[in-house]
Amino acid sequence: MNPFGDQLLNVITFVPLAGALVLLLLPKEKNELVARLATVFAGLGVLVSLPLWFAWQSAPTDGHGFRFVFESNWIPSIGAKYIVGVDGISMLLVLLTTIMGLIAILSSWTAIQTRVKGFYVFMLILQTGMIGVFVSLDMFLFYIFWEVMLVPMYFIIGIWGGKRKLYAAIKFFLYTLFGSVLMLLGIIALYFYHEKVTGMFTFDIRYLQAMGAWSGWFDLQCWIWLAFFLGFAIKVPMFPFHTWLPDAHVEAPTAGSVILAAVLLKMGTYGFVRFSLPMMPEATKHYLPYALTLCVIGIIYGAMVAMVQKDWKKLVAYSSVSHLGFCMIGIFALTADGITGGVLQMLNHGLATGALFLIVGLVYERRHTREISEYGGLWKVMPVFAVLFMIMMLSSIGMPGIPGNGFIGEFTILMGVFALPQKFWAVLAATGIVLGAAYMLWLYQRTMFGELSNEKNKNLKDLNFREIATLVPLVILSFWIGLYPKPFFNILAEPVNKLVAQVEQTWQYPDKVGKLAGDDVLVRLDELEEAMPEEGNEVH
Amino acid sequence: MLDLIWLIPLIPLTGVLINGFFGRRMPLKTVGVIACATVLIAFLLSVGAVVQLAGSEPNPDGLRIHELSLGDWMPLDAVSVPWEFSLDPLGSVLLLVVTGVGFLIHVYSIGYMAHEKDYARFFTYLNLFMGMMLTLVLAGNMMVMFVGWEGVGLCSYLLIGFYYDKPFDLRTGLTCADAGRKAFITNRIGDFAFLIGVLYLAINFGTLTFSEISERVAHAGPGAHGLLVGVGILLFLGACGKSAQIPLYVWLPDAMAGPTPVSALIHAATMVTAGVYMVARMSALYAQAPEAMAVIAAVGALTAIFAAIMGTAATDIKKVLAYSTVSQLGYMFAACGVGAYVAGIFHLMTHAFFKALLFLGAGSVIHGMNGEQDIRKMGGLKKKMPRTYWTFLVATLAIAGIPGLAGFFSKDEILWGAWSSGNKIVWLTLAAAAGVTAFYMFRLVYLTFWGTFRGGDEAESKVHESNSLMTVPLMVLAVLAAVGGWIGIPKLLTFGKDINLFHHWLAPAISLPHGDGHGVEASHSAGLEFGLMAVAVGIAVFGILLALHVYKSSTLPQKIADTLGPVYKLVRNLFWVDELYKFAILKPFYAACRGFRWVDIHVVDGLVNGTRNATLGLSYISNLHDRIVVDGLVNLTGWVTTWLHRMLSRVQTGMIQTYLSVMLLGVFILIAYYTLAG
């Protein structure tokens, strides 16, 4: 099932990078060869990631719920190690990344005509960066991957983008860099505080997560939480840090938009799940009302702004703001259902919005405009396209059963949020379901229905085999999650329950907040040592 | 057979796959046959399942029910939702109506849609609808029902917008696609409330399975009363969307943009009754929440009369029937609201027969009139389309409540249920609505089939009767509309002998307040019941006679309209409800959206760009400072040095004469200084 042993995650992470290196060796003029080879490497990336799914049950965990862990010394002088490993949450995100990466590359064969080689090299480097973020179990390593990812995306938008590509690329880069620098401060603060208490310099996420159980560092926690919050909230993006997104999406080439929506935005939500919640549970609870408020504003505001967009891509971009608000409100509900739903919805949003960007890209390639008013009546000339668009639109608006994945996510989230004592959060969030249908159906109607009145649209070709092949996997996955999501729930149950326990553990001792007693710390140290992975438990 | 009920929804879905993938390349006939065959198989399976259910042993509560689970679907922390299906007497009625009437309408559609280009697409949608409707009916829990519930809504959206490139209502500028979207969004508003209700149920009772909900709410205790009333009203709001009740009925009249068989199947016989079905399914919950039932009764009765009045002024043959449907659905809800669930479901069934027949008849008329739908341009079609006429007349008599026909029995049972439950106002409203119903239906018959043709000679010459693919289903439905009511004949009319099969079959599936298992059958005087029946029939006959009197004359209708003046205008414009929604909700909403867009560009992004500009500005100033002040100082030093250098270098001419001259000059100055100073 898993031919790579404990090297599995290394293989998954670096196959794309190896592909990029191979591409670099090819002559520049061989555009077709470059595109095909890039696709082969992305496909290889998917293949090597499959053992994650199929060998999941049989893989041992490291005692912290992480599997396929690989550990090696890296920079001993500062305690930074090369540690990779995945739990159910990151495993699903890695699979999403490899699949969406392949689809994004496959969708670029005809769309990218200039500097072809550079494009695919950047796409593959980006792929390695994104996977690296999800598999890192060392915060230093995590941060490196986090920043590495920015660079290729910057070039993808800045070189192959639309008219205002430079504005968008620089805005994207600076905005997210601003956030990640603050996050770096947070990481360093955590690192030193961990050393102050335990005497151990480490970036190991598994040890740092144990800090969530410590009491007595509430004030510091709050500062660090805010620093992380800015870093992640910009990436998600949560209202009011979202304005880089429409620009980046609109200007990016199709593949860039797909990756941006499907994977890059998940970095932020993933960050909350992996760092803010387990490491700083008290601060999370302290800022919860504000965070929930921003989520609700994001859901409603994003949907309402999407309602009145004239640009097809911008509409989908704002729908992302709304949907990510939904993911975040689930996560901030801090209940098992809420977090499970939030993670599921990350996948669903990746599939649905990734597909919607592909769909915009397909017509953009034919007509070179994104103005909704330029279209109308496309069903007549592109019926296959129209049906696939319909299915993924229904996924996006949370139709149960057809294909149903969006509904599963939304319902699970609402269930989780509804467990909060204040019912109005769920009620407000649920309005997103009505609004989502409103703007999406209107978009669909304006583009696919109506008379085929625009001369330029009368001879549009329906999708060819390659184009269908980019969308069909997303349709199949959507139906799968919609009709039989049980495997996903099973995989998520363990990490989510652990996370909920981590968040709740200090919840039970609110009286200790603000006191740092020496004895207390010593007790915690003992527990910490017990919690460390023993040699025998480690995966080899 | 009972263990295979989950197959029943799947069979039409195979039709979706076949026709969806290959339909465009298959001959039209094959497409139609596949679509009909899947529904026929579903119907036969349904009959088999219901027969087997009838033969099975009832559980201790006297209820025959078969439940099965296909495994987990959403194993949530708060509530686990399996793929559950169940069949009980309530579901069996819907099951047979949906598959039976559905099959007839499929057959009819082969004829009706014969000239359509998008034949395969139509039958794909239609089969998808059947699959979803059967999922809704056979669902064993609220979420599986919700799959069907939303699924039929989607099919409704797709089928209303089937002619997606055509305008629909020239007066309002609505296109068919608009009408479909309106239906979907209006339904979603109801579903929003429905989902909130479901969340309350799940959190508080830990289950969404119907049988478990029934059991747990029954033992919920008085503390849960407020919760149950709230949930009951939220669920009913969902039903208001699906079943077109006030305030969410506005989509149904516009749903007539779809092809007529769709109006018959979805917007008359099956989908729109889903709300009633759901309320009846939740009767155990409503039994604990009489206040919610009162709301249902009030909304139902109000909708019944309100929509009936709107039906009197409509001039589109299908819109008359659409308002009639809204009104009749109001009857069903009113029945549920007063606890006469059996009567409500009975009416659901008879209504499916006669209203499907009316719509299919209207479709036949439209087909025969080559697309004309305005009844002001019809008249005298009786002779040209005899089969359509006679079947239409049977359905009209049935809906008007003429004794012996299906509608009479069910409507009478509802009226009696309202009276005997003590809701005299509901009774009065419904009885009045019955009169209005008889009036607008005979107005329709008069203007369409009687009198003389008003559409011009050319149009008249083209009028033709439809082929037998269309008229045979009409005749089958006419038989059902005529005799379908006898299955639920009241004891009163059988000389005290109880042969009301329908009631006996259905009653165990229903829970009523106060543990009263037989609600409306409680002791009453036969004379009173008979008297009320006579009054209801009298009202209906009065409505018919009035219509005949008014429309016999060619000038009287106009005169009445003129006399009523503003009242007529109000009705003709449908009480301006659409306009009210537009100005009170939609316009402000869109304005808010545009406002937010402005805020996004100028405030939120403005801050970001402002930060950028501020940074750029600061950089500019730093740059200036750097260039002028810092660099200036550096350069100044340079300049000064250069200047000094230039000055001094002049001195260094390298010529002995100059040096000597300067030296001499110096000597002279020194001598002069010391001489003068000394």
From TrEMBL, chain A:
<dbReference type="GO" id="GO:0016020">
    <property type="term" value="C:membrane"/>
</dbReference>
<feature type="transmembrane region" description="Helical">
    <location>
        <begin position="143"/>
        <end position="160"/>
    </location>
</feature>
<protein>
    <submittedName>
        <fullName>NADH-quinone oxidoreductase subunit M</fullName>
        <ecNumber>1.6.5.11</ecNumber>
    </submittedName>
</protein>
<feature type="transmembrane region" description="Helical">
    <location>
        <begin position="384"/>
        <end position="404"/>
    </location>
</feature>
<keyword id="KW-0812">Transmembrane</keyword>
<feature type="transmembrane region" description="Helical">
    <location>
        <begin position="465"/>
        <end position="483"/>
    </location>
</feature>
<dbReference type="GO" id="GO:0015990">
    <property type="term" value="P:electron transport coupled proton transport"/>
</dbReference>
<dbReference type="GO" id="GO:0012505">
    <property type="term" value="C:endomembrane system"/>
</dbReference>
<feature type="transmembrane region" description="Helical">
    <location>
        <begin position="346"/>
        <end position="364"/>
    </location>
</feature>
<comment type="similarity">
    <text>Belongs to the complex I subunit 4 family.</text>
</comment>
<dbReference type="Pfam" id="PF00361">
    <property type="entry name" value="Proton_antipo_M"/>
</dbReference>
<feature type="transmembrane region" description="Helical">
    <location>
        <begin position="424"/>
        <end position="444"/>
    </location>
</feature>
<keyword id="KW-1133">Transmembrane helix</keyword>
<feature type="domain" description="NADH:quinone oxidoreductase/Mrp antiporter transmembrane">
    <location>
        <begin position="136"/>
        <end position="435"/>
    </location>
</feature>
<feature type="transmembrane region" description="Helical">
    <location>
        <begin position="315"/>
        <end position="334"/>
    </location>
</feature>
<feature type="transmembrane region" description="Helical">
    <location>
        <begin position="287"/>
        <end position="308"/>
    </location>
</feature>
<keyword id="KW-0560">Oxidoreductase</keyword>
<dbReference type="GO" id="GO:0008137">
    <property type="term" value="F:NADH dehydrogenase (ubiquinone) activity"/>
</dbReference>
<dbReference type="GO" id="GO:0042773">
    <property type="term" value="P:ATP synthesis coupled electron transport"/>
</dbReference>
<feature type="transmembrane region" description="Helical">
    <location>
        <begin position="255"/>
        <end position="275"/>
    </location>
</feature>
<dbReference type="GO" id="GO:0048039">
    <property type="term" value="F:ubiquinone binding"/>
</dbReference>
<dbReference type="InterPro" id="IPR003918">
    <property type="entry name" value="NADH_UbQ_OxRdtase"/>
</dbReference>
UniProtKB/TrEMBL annotation, chain B:
<dbReference type="GO" id="GO:0003954">
    <property type="term" value="F:NADH dehydrogenase activity"/>
</dbReference>
<feature type="transmembrane region" description="Helical">
    <location>
        <begin position="223"/>
        <end position="241"/>
    </location>
</feature>
<feature type="transmembrane region" description="Helical">
    <location>
        <begin position="530"/>
        <end position="551"/>
    </location>
</feature>
<keyword id="KW-1133">Transmembrane helix</keyword>
<keyword id="KW-0521">NADP</keyword>
<dbReference type="Pfam" id="PF00662">
    <property type="entry name" value="Proton_antipo_N"/>
</dbReference>
<dbReference type="GO" id="GO:0008137">
    <property type="term" value="F:NADH dehydrogenase (ubiquinone) activity"/>
</dbReference>
<dbReference type="Pfam" id="PF00361">
    <property type="entry name" value="Proton_antipo_M"/>
</dbReference>
<keyword id="KW-0874">Quinone</keyword>
<dbReference type="GO" id="GO:0012505">
    <property type="term" value="C:endomembrane system"/>
</dbReference>
<keyword id="KW-0812">Transmembrane</keyword>
<dbReference type="GO" id="GO:0015990">
    <property type="term" value="P:electron transport coupled proton transport"/>
</dbReference>
<dbReference type="InterPro" id="IPR001750">
    <property type="entry name" value="ND/Mrp_TM"/>
</dbReference>
<dbReference type="InterPro" id="IPR018393">
    <property type="entry name" value="NADHpl_OxRdtase_5_subgr"/>
</dbReference>
<feature type="transmembrane region" description="Helical">
    <location>
        <begin position="656"/>
        <end position="676"/>
    </location>
</feature>
<feature type="transmembrane region" description="Helical">
    <location>
        <begin position="262"/>
        <end position="280"/>
    </location>
</feature>
<feature type="transmembrane region" description="Helical">
    <location>
        <begin position="292"/>
        <end position="317"/>
    </location>
</feature>
<dbReference type="InterPro" id="IPR002128">
    <property type="entry name" value="NADH_UbQ_OxRdtase_chlpt_su5_C"/>
</dbReference>
<feature type="transmembrane region" description="Helical">
    <location>
        <begin position="30"/>
        <end position="54"/>
    </location>
</feature>
<dbReference type="InterPro" id="IPR001516">
    <property type="entry name" value="Proton_antipo_N"/>
</dbReference>
<keyword id="KW-0472">Membrane</keyword>
<dbReference type="InterPro" id="IPR003945">
    <property type="entry name" value="NU5C-like"/>
</dbReference>
